[in-house]
Design goal:
Blueprint lengths: L8 H7 L8 H9 L4 E5 L19 H6 L7 E6 L2 E6 L3 H5 L3
Antiparallel strand pairs: 1-3, 2-3
Length: about 100
């Protein structure tokens, strides 16, 4: 998740909804905001001058990386310690919308 020096309500909303990622609710929220790709760091990087959150979202990175994406319309691949999720369009795209 990106960071900014001031609060943006939609970014705050998105940050607050990722504790269960990848689950149906978090994937739907990502679709709502138009997010197409999520990169999950299974090992949090150390960056000079940047303080990372005390508790990442999702809080258990290894458990999140192991969670099934079956039925979510999400593709997943691993690249080293990263897990890259491609968020598909979801069921409404397949069946039209009202």
């Amino acid at each position: 998740m990106g960071n900014s020096t001031f609060d943006i309500p939609s970014v705050d909303d998105l940050r607050g909804g990722m504790s269960g990622f990848p689950d149906r609710a978090s994937v739907e929220k990502l679709r709502y905001y138009g997010v197409k790709t999520v990169v999950l760091h299974t090992v949090m990087p150390t960056l000079p001058g940047i303080k990372l959150p005390e508790v990442p979202e999702p809080p258990d990175l290894a458990a999140a990386a192991a969670r099934s994406v079956k039925g979510l319309g999400v593709a997943r691949r691993r690249v080293g310690s990263l897990v890259i999720y491609e968020i598909g369009p979801g069921p409404k795209a397949l069946h039209g919308s009202d």
